[in-house]
Amino acid sequence: MDIGFSTTAISVLLLVAMAIPGFIIVKVKIIKPAAISAFAAVLLYISQPFLSFRSFLQVEYSNELALNLLIVFAASLVFQGVLFLILWLIFRTKFDNVIETEKFKANGYFNGASETFINYKDMPDDVKKSARGRAYRVMVLTSTFGNVGFFGVPILQVIFTDSTIAATAIAYSAVYIVSMNLMFWTIGAYTLTGDRKYISIKKAILNPQMITVIIALPFFFTGVTMGDITASPVPQIANVINYLADMTAPLCMIILGMRFALAPIKDLFTDWRTYVSTVIKLMVFPIVVWAILLPIPIDHLMKVVLIILSSMPSASFNLNLSEIFNADQKSAANAILLSTIFSILTIPAIVALTNVTL
User: Fold this and answer.
1) Residue 253: CA atoms inside 13 Å, Cβ hemisphere, count?
2) Is 329 in a helix, a strand, or coil?
3) What pLDDT, in 10s, does the model give residues 160-204?
4) What is the helix (H) or strand (E) element at residue 208, kind and residue range?
5) What pLDDT digit, counting tens, does each position of 60-83 carry?
């Protein structure tokens, strides 16, 4: 499993190239910005679930693989949870007072998506303090949660050319995403809002990735594979699964290009918190995960996948959650875009480190 710097760099660049059509169609106004959410819904509810489902059909059940899936789930939960806790303890004293922030919102400040374009220089000091506190809340999330589904899964697809290895890697990513979703709707929602009432156990459990895994596991445990579906009375079902699953990588990148087309590029480099978030997410977190896993005698592929997924840029869901709770969308968007730009260099470096040392 030789996956060096140059191989990964070329793969990442090819993926990023897929974002160019999305960038163009938004820039020339073929697609309106409001339509991006519709594309994201197709990805979230159709293509990515089918990709995860197919990955479970492409691997053969074994006690070892079942145990490895459980280990990946537990490890991803612990790694992300510990990083989140450390950052929360460091920055919680800088969070805004939610009661004061609500008063500012009532007075017209922090007004939804338009906040992305707000300049705080001429605002009252107490409003600026609240704005900084909101940015710290977002920074904790963007430093912790990576774009495992929309960027990590396509990376795994292009890095692992062997179909069996790729299927196993994507199955690992599926349970990694489940652990991340559990934290998004619980500690993530609480951190952004400062209010426990926004913690949603229902959404943490009933989301597309969790439902996909729940549906796929009976097939996995009973040994049903793509070969069985192909040999069934309706073999075309396998083709449908493949077509919808194969949409994932290009659709992910097209949506990313669309988001880049809307980004105020000059704002990406003006907030030091965005740099801190990017460094933690792209370098500190994966290197710590690598150092922890290095001496542990577990499956090699499992180690590689955990390290690669931990090196992904900030998750686009950080922005989605900020939009839902009217949090600091500007900081979330900037962290996602800046970390994605720099990940073109850092992901190949992390993969090369993993390949040489594990």
Assistant:
1) 19
2) helix
3) 888 888 889 999 998 999 999 899 999 999 999 888 888 888 888
4) helix 208-221
5) 889 999 999 999 999 999 999 999
Helix (H, G, I), strand (E, B) or coil at 172: helix
Top-level CATH class of 5-357?
mainly alpha
Domain range summary for the chain, segments of one domain joined by +: 5-357
Which residues have a Cβ under 8 Å from the Cβ of 64 and sit 6 or more positions away? 299
Helix (H) or strand (E) holding 199: none
Closest-CA residue to 59 (of 171, 183, 210, 197): 171
Beta-ladder partners of 150: none
Which residue in this structure is represented by tokens 């989301």? 207
Determine phi and psi for 314, rounding to 5 degrees.
Answer: -55, 140
Residue identified by tokens 């949870």 is: 81
Q: Which residues contact 262 (CB under 8 A, 6 or more apart)?
A: 26, 33, 36
3-state secondary structure string across 85-136: HHHHHHHHHHCCCHHHHHHHHHCCCCCHHHHHHCCCCCCCHHHHHHHHHHHH
